[in-house]
Amino acid sequence: MTSAVHPTAADHTELRHVLRSGAQLGVLQAALIAAFGLAQPRVSGMTELLVCGAILVIGVAATIALPGLWTRARSIEGIAGAAGIGLFATVVYLLIDVAALQPLGVYTNRWLEIGGGSNWCYHPVWWMVGTYMPWLGAWVLANQAGKSGAANPTMLVVLTLVLAAVIMAVATVAKFPGASYGLGTFGVSVLPAQALLVVITGLGGRRG
């Protein structure tokens, strides 16, 4: 994981850039979540898997790849900047969520019910996940660049999805509580898949 300890001039982490990029990502996430919420009750079976699965994959790809590309992450500076973009994106999304998506009934209110009518039930989780995914995505891009001189976002996305599918299958076969072959388990599996990919891409890197 050499790229995280060798600073370069490539890292682009000016505050204005981080905030602007975070706002763009937050709006994109809100649009994708709204599309998912509107589509899911209206489709079923294979159509649901294809339509909602495509939306989920696009959302995952954008969240893990765009922040690191926007900061041109090559060192811990750019990786942290990507995490900052992800964090601000969650703030923008949650403002849109409270102001528009929830009042319009885009999806069910189960999260509000679980939290006793309070958004604070799931908002902190969104902040953490929304920061974690860009952070580790940028870390992988930096690891790639540290080895080959260039980041490969396509490989980042493909390997993350493949590892997530493997983890979903293992968890389901092992009867992990709540695990099943479905979009929910697949989405959660992206998180350990990212951590595993950081380790894999960091193997054999230069030591500083």
Please give a handful of descriptors for the protein shown.
208 residues, globular, mainly alpha
Structure description:
The chain is mainly α and 208 residues long. It has one domain (2-202). The chain is 72% helix and 0% strand. It contains 7 helices and no strands. The chain has helices spanning 15-39, 45-71, 76-101, 110-114, 123-148, 153-173, 183-202. The longest helix is centred in the first third of the chain and has 27 residues, at 45-71. The radius of gyration is 18 Å and the shape is globular. Mean pLDDT is 91; it is low at 1-8.
Give helix and strand order, one letter per element, not per position. Answer: HHHHHHH
DSSP strand (E) fraction? under 5%
Describe the sheet with the most strands. Answer: none
Question: How large is the radius of gyration?
Answer: 18 Å
DSSP E strands, number: 0
What's the number of structural domains?
Answer: 1
Mean residue pLDDT: 91
Helix proportion: over 70%
The end-to-end span amounts to 10 Å
Summarize the structure.
The protein is mainly α and 208 residues long. 72% of the residues lie in helices and 0% in strands. It has one domain (2-202).
Q: SSE layout and pairings?
A:
Layout: H1 15-39, H2 45-71, H3 76-101, H4 110-114, H5 123-148, H6 153-173, H7 183-202
Helix pairs in contact: 1-2, 1-3, 2-3, 2-5, 2-6, 3-5, 5-7, 6-7
